[in-house]
Amino acid sequence: MFRNNYDNDSVTFSPQGRIFQVEYAAEAVKQGSVVVGIASKTHAVLVAFKRNAEELSSYQKKLFAIDEHVGIAIAGLTSDARVLSNFMKQQCLGHRLTYGRNMPVRGLVDMIGSKAQINTQHYGKRPYGVGLLVAGVDEQGPHLFEFQPSGMTEEMVAFAIGARSQMARTYLEKNLDAFADCGREELVRHGLKALKESLVQDRELTIENTSVGIAGVSKSKEDGSSVVEPFKVFDGQEVNAWIESVADDKEGGGDAAGEGEGMDVDA
Amino acid sequence: MFSQNPIMNGPNYSFNDAPPKANAPEGARQHRFDPYTDNGGSTLAIAGADFTIMAGDTRLTSGYSINSRYHPKVFKIGGTTADQHDATLVLSVVGFAADGEALKERLDTICKMYRYRHGKPMSVKACAQRLSTILYQKRFFPYYAYAILGGLDDEGRGAVYSYDPVGSYEREQCRAGGAAASLIMPFLDNQVNFKNQYVPGSGEGHALQERERNPLSRGAVEILVKDAFDGAVERHIEVGDGLQMMVITKNGIEEILQPLKRD
Amino acid sequence: MDHRPQAWGRPRDDVYGAYDGSYFQNSGPKFATQSPVVTGTSVIAIKFKDGVVIAADNLASYGSLARFTNVKRLRVFLDTTVVGFGGDVSDMQYLDRHLNELAIDESYENDTTETAAATTTSSSDPSSTSTQTPNNPAGSLNAANLHKYLQKLLYRRRNDFDPLWNHILVAGLDASSKPFLASVDLRGTAFTSPSLATGFGAALAQPIMRRYAATEEDAAKLTREQAVDIIKECMKVLFYRDARSLDKYSIAVVTKDGVELKEEEQLEKQSWAFAERIHGYGTQTV
């Protein structure tokens, strides 16, 4: 028997005004491992905790480069994310061909928002089972957006989605004021610290299970035009230094310059 | 129609909505839109042992007018970013500039998608085949552009692929394209492939021994390219203003700009 | 007189000849524009130190008839870019409406009043935010973006064999706020140069402009006043020699401070003395 008469499709409201299929899709996001995103005035970073199905298998990719100025972090069904990723890639290429510029991040996020919403209003369709954090830079600076299967999109200063992400969000809320003026490295460390908050007991960040993605923008010294640091995903040995810099025994130690102002991290 | 006019032999009115077939005079529309122009200019590519040099002048003409003195014909292809800093291939196009531009952007997009899907740059060989397909897809409304694709092959040797506008292609040691192709190509035959060069005193007739072909150095090729274009500029009005050279080596692509005569 | 309502408003065969209804047919082959009808002549423009000067006269000709003498062929886009149109005037007006739509969409897209980034940066140091003109917030289409767009549009139409019969100059600033000047024609051929001219201007004005701005470096040395003087001189030469031109013209100066557009300029200091010395054609009998 059905648990619920109103959850067979995404076109039927329950008497309480809920669409259960969409809510279930949002649950799928919570099954995915946690990803964190933060934007400062100069950079937008994504950090992700990768999972492997078993000891012998490889780790599931969590970060994807969309275009030179945008990347996404995913939580939920990877295959659904790939559909969205391909779509976003196409849109960015198309925009670059017609206008010769980086696609504005908000415009891009609005497009996947509308695309996902359609799935919640047509019989026989299924909402995307994936949530995204979209990080990118455009002429207006760095951006971070959240995307949910319902089609909801929202610009964020910092956010986390996925399993146990509430703990990461708590960390982010606590340090919210520091982010805007953070440098590149500092922002990554904030991301990793938030990520650590959400880890299960006895789990550690390792070079195998951690991914970092960064996009940045700076003003050129010659003519004041904006120079984009293309979105790049860092894996394996490339993230080693960052992980070590946020290791438990180093916390509060301030091994790197500019660290430690008001970042009391309770373990 | 409506011949039962109330007033006998009064004026008739036009109710005819179908085009009168017979009385449309032959060739009534004088201007037919011609979608093509020739924007002149010339390109040149030479493959070396471990490098490829692609070159083109930067003049853009239509008729006797110089539209622009700096309009590049040689492009890096398939980098991950707009500035193409990590590109591995170079495409040159000459003929109708708008088609050339469109062709370049299509191939670039395809190379970018390939990199996104496979996580590695496209090989020259694969890209060359793909370019041929793109050109042939427009067999009956062709891209009016003579394309040359350059890069390094799987063994790291210089590779040059040349095309006609509808996609016939072959790999060659060197090729000149565009307005001054017929001026430059014979020079290249002689200087790159040593055509009509024989070992002195090796005999007569069939006994004549051809000069041994050995790969040219990068420096020698750069000089050759400059000489070829200086010659073309003297004898062809559509060639001149600037010489753009892309040198592809295993360390990346180096771009060199030199002046040409602007007359 | 035919009193039947069916005949009302119909052209009379004895006056106009049999009506050619082919224009109304909606089956069979479609006839796209095969030639321009009402046309504007040259547009000319030159770059200078901190911007671009662009001009076009106010005439729209119907063949050799000077049909409309108050047609503005320079159009401002988002307060930062000027587009100058040569060629068919109806296609120009179509493009004008299209650019209006684009500008409105663009203004919506770049409405930053509610973004999270705006709230976080508002409290902190203002030096990092770039200067913005009210109608062109950072990130909206600049002249280079617009030129690329128009190139795609015109190239697409030529591929459909339904060209927009225009030759367009786009003047403004690029992404790094440097002067930008580029051209695109009805086939989608696009190019840039320190000075540009469409139509007759390519033969008459371009050589004069190239005397002052042969290279980008030369153009970067010109002052605004010099550039305006060169353009005015060129407009005068064009009026002397181009039979489809007018002595009333529009001129715009684009800099990072915005666009100064004057649409009712009159050619000054004309001297037709040279005409006395021209022999060999025309109405002279000697």
Topology overview:
The complex is a heterotrimer of chains A (267), B (263) and C (286).
Chain A: H1 20-31, E1 35-39, E2 43-49, E3 63-67, E4 70-76, H2 78-99, H3 105-118, E5 130-138, E6 141-147, E7 153-155, E8 158-161, H4 165-174, H5 176-179, H6 184-197, E9 210-219, E10 226-234, H7 240-245
Antiparallel strand pairs in A: 1-2, 1-8, 2-9, 3-4, 4-5, 5-6, 6-7, 9-10
Helix pairs in contact in A: 2-3, 4-6
Chain B: E1 42-47, E2 52-57, E3 60-62, E4 65-68, E5 74-77, E6 89-95, H1 97-118, H2 124-137, E7 145-152, E8 158-163, E9 169-172, E10 174-178, H3 181-191, H4 218-235, E11 242-249, E12 252-259
Antiparallel strand pairs in B: 1-2, 1-10, 2-11, 3-4, 5-6, 6-7, 7-8, 8-9, 11-12
Helix pairs in contact in B: 1-2, 3-4
Chain C: H1 13-16, E1 38-40, E2 43-48, E3 51-57, E4 60-62, E5 65-68, E6 74-77, E7 81-88, H2 89-109, H3 116-122, H4 143-159, E8 166-173, E9 179-184, E10 190-192, E11 195-197, H5 201-204, H6 206-212, H7 216-219, H8 224-241, E12 248-255, E13 258-266, H9 273-276
Antiparallel strand pairs in C: 1-4, 1-7, 2-3, 2-11, 3-12, 4-5, 6-7, 7-8, 8-9, 9-10, 12-13
Written description of the protein model:
Chain C: Residues 110-142 are annotated as: Disordered. Chain C: InterPro entries: Ntn_hydrolases_N, Proteasome_beta4, Proteasome_bsu_CS, Proteasome_sua/b, Proteasome_suB-type. The complex is a heterotrimer of chains A (267), B (263) and C (286). Chain A is of the alpha+beta class and 267 residues long. Chain A has helices spanning 20-31, 78-99, 105-118, 165-174, 176-179, 184-197, 240-245, and strands at residues 35-39, 43-49, 63-67, 70-76, 130-138, 141-147, 153-155, 158-161, 210-219, 226-234. In chain A, α4 packs across α6 (184-197). Mean pLDDT of chain A is 90; it is low at 252-267. In chain B, strands 10-1-2-11-12 form a 5-stranded antiparallel beta sheet. A 5-stranded antiparallel beta sheet of chain B has the order 5-6-7-8-9, with helices on one face. Chain B has a two-stranded antiparallel ribbon with strand order 3-4. Chain B has 263 residues and is α+β, with helices and mostly antiparallel strands. Chain C has 9 helices and 13 strands. In chain C, strands 1, 4, 5, 6, 7, 8, 9 and 10 form an 8-stranded antiparallel beta sheet that branches. At the B-C interface, β4 and α1 of B face α1, α4 and β10 of C.
